[in-house]
Amino acid sequence: MFSLEGFRKYVHRGRANTPKVTIRKAGQIGFNSGAIGKYNLDVYKYAMLFISDDKKRVAVKFTNNEKESGILAIQKRPGSFAFSAIPFMRLHDISYDKTRNFDFTWIEKDKVAIFRPEE
Question: What does the domain layout of the chain look like in residue ranges?
Answer without folding.
Answer: 21-115
